[in-house]
């Protein structure tokens, strides 16, 4: 009997050791903002079990703007974040200990969206009421857009507001323009019968990268394999999203509770697919970033924006954790 008990005890201990050895690693992901369709790849990776496949238990948390996300990740409160890369660059230059490890949406969509069809050049925004979000990516790059085109903040009537208040402000006529992502606001305003004029910042001297993944630098050095697994599963989610957009939108709507039409979110995913690469990353794996893009963006932000402490491009990003 004693031998039997000992054998059972050994089997139990072995079972516990085995379950512990294969327990999923927990990680908390901080998004850039509240739910929007550009976050669908991560939602799909969770809902389709892609994170489970690489032994990750991912807790996806909504954000309050890319700037806030970079601060939270820098403090290692949430070790991984999804954020606008122009904002990431500003934060790294300011000393926040984070590293960009993937650039998914590489062609930056930030623009000035106006409901005055006579606004055709930056000079036309003088005296206009412009809504912007200080904690968001648009608030970080708007000053660079103005300065690059011979304007200052004092040349406009700047209205700082939460990101979710901008659309209502411009739709109601309280604002002339808003600083934000063209694919998001333009179609909604046109659907309301508004005449829309869009000044894309990249077309007016402000190089900017779009959205990607950022990691706390200490966490990255201590847990490179977790980051590699996270990126592999997230890229699988991105590829599945773009190959199955209708299903992806259906899952996004179920998870987020968003009430906008499915066609609108499908349009966001179409814009996403068209923005996966810059000229510097064509032919490279999805997520791979070019030093030339970071250098060009940072030069713009240092010359025309509020970036101080500009570093060499290699200090901002790493492609080492991306699946090949």
- Oligomeric composition of the shown chains: single chain
- Helix/strand-derived category reads alpha/beta
**Overall form:** globular
Query: Overall pLDDT, averaged?
Result: 92
Largest sheet: 5 strands, mixed
The percentage helix is: 40-55%
Which features would summarize this protein structure in a list?
single chain, 324 residues, alpha/beta, 10 strands, 44% helix, globular, disordered N terminus
Walkthrough of the structure:
Helix content is 44%, strand content 18%. The chain has 13 helices and ten strands. The strands form two sheets. A five-stranded mixed β-sheet has the order 2-1-3-10-4, with helices on both faces. Helix 2 packs across helix 11, helix 8 (182-191) runs antiparallel to helix 12 (262-273) and helix 11 (245-256) crosses helix 12 (262-273).
Write the layout of secondary structure elements.
Layout: H1 2-21, E1 25-30, H2 40-47, H3 50-53, E2 56-61, H4 66-74, E3 80-84, H5 85-93, E4 98-107, E5 110-114, E6 129-132, H6 137-148, E7 157-160, H7 166-171, E8 177-181, H8 182-191, E9 197-200, E10 209-216, H9 217-222, H10 224-243, H11 245-256, H12 262-273, H13 291-304
Parallel strand pairs: 1-2, 1-3, 6-7, 6-8
Antiparallel strand pairs: 3-10, 4-10, 5-8, 5-9
Question: What is the gist of this entry?
Answer:
With 324 residues, this protein is an alpha/beta fold. Helix content is 44%, strand content 18%. Helix 2 (40-47) crosses helix 11, helix 8 packs antiparallel against helix 12 (262-273) and helix 10 (224-243) packs across helix 11.
């Amino acid at each position: 009997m004693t031998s039997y008990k000992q054998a059972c005890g050994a089997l139990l201990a072995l079972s516990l050791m085995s379950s512990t050895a294969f327990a999923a690693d927990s990680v908390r992901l901080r998004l850039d903002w509240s739910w929007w369709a550009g976050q669908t790849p991560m939602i799909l990776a969770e809902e389709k079990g892609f994170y489970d496949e690489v032994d990750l238990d991912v807790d996806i948390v909504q954000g309050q703007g890319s700037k806030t996300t970079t601060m939270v990740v820098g403090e290692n409160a949430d070790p991984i974040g999804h954020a606008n890369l122009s904002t990431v660059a500003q934060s790294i230059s300011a000393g926040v200990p984070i590293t960009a490890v993937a650039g998914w949406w590489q062609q930056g969509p930030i623009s000035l969206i106006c409901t005055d069809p006579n606004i055709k050049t930056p000079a036309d925004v003088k005296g206009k009421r412009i809504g912007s979000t200080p904690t968001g990516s648009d608030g970080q790059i708007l000053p660079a857009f103005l300065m690059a085109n011979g304007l200052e903040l004092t040349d406009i009537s700047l209205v700082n507001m939460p990101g979710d208040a901008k659309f209502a402000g411009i739709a109601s006529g309280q604002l002339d323009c808003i600083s934000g992502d063209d694919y998001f606001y333009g179609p909604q305003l046109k659907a309301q019968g508004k005449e829309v004029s869009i000044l894309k910042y990249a077309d007016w001297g402000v190089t900017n990268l779009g959205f990607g993944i950022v990691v706390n630098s200490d966490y990255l050095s201590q847990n490179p394999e977790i980051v590699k697994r996270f990126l592999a599963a997230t890229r699988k989610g991105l590829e599945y999203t773009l190959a199955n957009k209708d299903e992806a939108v259906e899952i996004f709507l179920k998870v987020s509770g968003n009430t906008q039409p499915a066609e609108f979110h499908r349009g966001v995913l179409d814009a996403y697919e068209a923005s996966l690469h810059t000229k510097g990353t064509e032919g490279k794996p999805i997520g791979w970033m070019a030093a030339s893009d970071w250098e060009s963006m940072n030069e713009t932000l240092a010359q025309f924006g509020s970036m101080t402490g500009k570093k060499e491009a290699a200090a901002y990003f790493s492609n080492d954790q991306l699946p090949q």
